[in-house]
Amino acid sequence: MQLDTIINNLPSFFYRAKNDKHWTAEFASQGFYKLTGHSVEDLTNSKVHFAEIILEADRNKVRETIEKAIAVKEIFHIEYRITHKNGTIKHFREQGQGVYAANNKLIALEGFVQDISKQKQTEHKLREEKAKNTALLDAMPDMMFIQNLKGEYTDCFASEPEKLFMPVKDFIGKNTKEVLPPHVFEIVDEAQHKAIATGEVQIVKYSVKNENGEQFFEARIVHLNQHGLLTIVREFTLQRLAEKQFTKSEVRNKAMLQAIPDFLYTLDRNGVYLDAHAPETAILPVAKEDLVGKSIYDILPEELADRIMKAIVQSDKTNQTQVLEYSFSLEEEVRFYEGRIVKKDNANFLAIVRDITEKRSVDDSLYLRNSALAAIINGIVITDSRQRDNPIIYANQAFKDTTGYESADFIGKNCNFLQGEDQNQEEIKIMSSAIKKGESCHVVLRNYRKDGTLFWNEISLTPIFNNNDILTHFISVQNDVSARKKDEIFKNSIKQVMDMIIEQKPLEDIGNKIVETIEIAIPNCIGSILLLNKDKKTLHKLCAPNLPQIFSNAIEGIAISDKMGSCGTAAFLKNEIIVPNIAESPLWEDFTELALAEDLRACWSFPIYSSNKEVLGTFAIYSNTIGEPIPTEKNFIYDITRVASVAIEKQNANNALKRSTEKLAAYADELEMTVEERTDELKEMVQKLTESNLSLEDQIKETKSAERKALKSKILIEQISQNYPLGYVAVIDANFRIVYIQGEELKELGFKGLSNSKTIIDDVLGFSEEVKEIVKANVLKTFRGEHRTFEITFQNRFYLVNTMPLPNENQNIEQVLLVHNNITLQKQAELEMLNTLKKEQELSELKSRFISMASHEFRTPLSAILSSGILIEKLNAPGKEEKRLRHVAKIKSNVQNLVVILNDFLSLSKLEEGKVIAKPEKFDFIGLSKSIIDDIKGNKKKGQTIVFECQLSELIVFLDPKLVRHIISNLLSNAIKYSDENKNIIFKIETNHHQLLLEVTDQGIGIPQEDITNMFQRFYRANNVTNIQGTGLGLSIVKQYTELMGGSIKLKSELNVGSTFYIDFPLNTSQNEKNINN
């Protein structure tokens, strides 16, 4: 015990850690809390890992040092920094070693950690002090010499050694007389003797003539007692020359003084004006001639006068210039001033005051501009065109966020580092030319972030010229347009595909273009389109240009079923099938080996639907990496699948039209043969009639025969038009009049009879103005010879309209044919697909929350079971039975917690599947309740009591006892979990004429009011219990079980007071059974 007390009170701590990935702590002394702020319990319960509080910059060094020492079984020593719980940085020194089993296997680490923060602070201060002293010494312009009392030089310091009479190494050890010129030696020698005799500092001046002219020096000689003499020599040649110059130019100085824009005042130490100078145009509170003799307190506001007096006192004390800024109101205008107070040799003070109002305004403007540049969301870069290579001198935070670079990475460099090796871009040439010419330009470049990823950078470059019209800088405004660029590329590709569809290119060519588009949009993927044979229920390749040929041949003609890879299953189930890992998917049992051999790791297959929701085929994406498509990739796939649907349906329609055309041609040929036969007959008849001088009546008969044939052809066309399926056809002339309109849907649309009255498009009812303008615009383009395809919407229907010019015999376009195809079902299918995607996203989010919560809830009890098991293994010695029993109880408790969690998951699963059905039977409710209380006693905290309140000794009910047990156990477990020690939990049972009433009341932490309405939702947990174990499923299951038996549940709660749950069941729960109470 004494040793434990000593260890726990040391300003350090001992530890023992497991040999696992995180070096999980098994033991730590109480010093851990004192040094880190984290409790020992949090460390040993893995709520905090020691590695996590080590500064990230030191973590690799610590791990490498420990691993290196373990490898050779040596003691390790290391220093590192940690973050204290209060946010401060501390320095630690650690010594430790590995603990090995009999077989030399490492089983643990043991070590000793000290706080050396104060030591580090002291070392830092000493280094700073040393650096400061060295800097001060280096900054001194004086030469210093140390001599012994015999006059011999023992040390020297000179910032300019060239000014010495000889090199330092030559005069060290020599006498003054041997070093100095005779006339200098006489002056210095006399002063040295005086300094020794009087102990006072001696100051002498002398001059020396050399090739640079005459130089003047001042020497200060100090007697250092037994340590010898210190001589400090300072050159004052420039000051001497200045004095002479000042004497000669006094008149000039006075003129210059008049030109100075500053205010100059001489003050004594009491703040009385002794002299004043101000520019003639200056605005003063009092005339300058009236200032002399007055105190600053007579002229200035008291607060300002106090500040000036403090500056005078400070300048007098430190002999340093004092600077203060202040504002002053003159003539109803606030002006800003900067004052500098300097102590003069005569103990008075010179105050130099400058009006900085304009400078202050400029500084404020600059500050606002800089703040605006830093806050703007676009990247801003400024380069200096006057320097070589036009280097960057400024970039705002948005530029750093976009590129991932820090200032140290790019300041002083040219912007071309963003292009990396991708320098062959036409836009770079455009920008270089603009920079060379000093012009503006706007380009979009391929740039690369610090991590190497590509992004598209939209750059607006603007030159900046100075007042002399000289180019000085360039300002570049940058914007990351990667998403827009990628979307543009994808949309352009989609447009090209749609053009191919309109131009009726071969379906295989269209399919190859679709696959090429998706393979560009989604990196490292392989696309495939399979068509469904509806009769045989088999899939056949339309196109898969990059899919391995062996694999493509293997899946050719596969029958669709619910377990036939991704494509066969998607076509069978009429739903998308995402297989992130082929190797683990039961759907791929027949093709796994072949797919993996061809480096196909994942497959996402999407059914291609027709406008009436029939499966036309599948669109599949193969990847050589394991994973699922991200949302943007799914959107690309959905869009491209819809385009594939249009292409396939268009092809099917063309094929159907071709077959109809062939039938029509055959009918026309048959008709033509009939006409020819009739014509031959007619010719014979005409010949006979001619020969017999046929009358006019015979000619009329011939005419009527021709009319009947023309009428028959017209009827045929009418029948085709009137029965045009899912739409209608119309013919419009150059004046936008409807000259012909027929189709299956005319009656429903109310368009019958429009062609009879030659109705103009503008007069058609049922069209919006917008639709009319779209139709008219496309009709005009068709009159110019174009074939148009566009979509319109009216009367809650969607139509795809194809136009075709109708030329006359002179090939002049007189009319336009419009074929309207009803695509409403296809549009509805697209909407359903979007809704399905939304539901799948919600399901994915729910799955992620479930996995995260489950992994967290299982980890805590499993960790406790593992640690208790290890400790039991180490407590095998006699006399430790009580400790072993405690750990066994802990294991039982955590196993019970796991059982509760698993029961919640199983209950939730059964409820979701609708497999839970109440199975009522007669049983004693009081007896079951007491049994539950006995079972749950082991979970109670210290001092907790379950108070059972019921006036009945027996209560026979007709309910499901298993569901009732789950409900009561859950509510009592929650009451125990969320209540502190020494608290009562009340379980109350009552009945009235119609109901069985239950109440469970605790004195726990309570529930915030904003959370109460959500407490019965799945996975929901109140904000104040995030640190307490739980799944958020219990109350949801309780509510559903209660409602299954015809009951209801509600709750009341007050924060930090407690909660009460109320449950009521109907007493007559069966038609032939009644609950019985005694």
Automatic annotation (TrEMBL):
Give the EC number(s) listed in the UniProt record. Answer: 2.7.13.3
Instruction: Give the record's keywords alphabetically.
Output: Coiled coil, Kinase, Phosphoprotein, Transferase, Two-component regulatory system
| GO function terms (MF aspect) | phosphorelay sensor kinase activity
The organism's superkingdom is given as Bacteria
PAC domain: residues covered: 76-128, 439-493
This enzyme catalyses:
ATP + protein L-histidine = ADP + protein N-phospho-L-histidine
Q: Where is the PAS domain?
A: 1-73, 249-319, 372-438
Pfam families under this entry? GAF_2, HATPase_c, HisKA, PAS_3, PAS_4, PAS_9
Q: What is this protein called?
A: histidine kinase
Instruction: Provide the species name.
Output: Bizionia myxarmorum
Q: What is the lineage of its organism?
A: Bacteria, Pseudomonadati, Bacteroidota, Flavobacteriia, Flavobacteriales
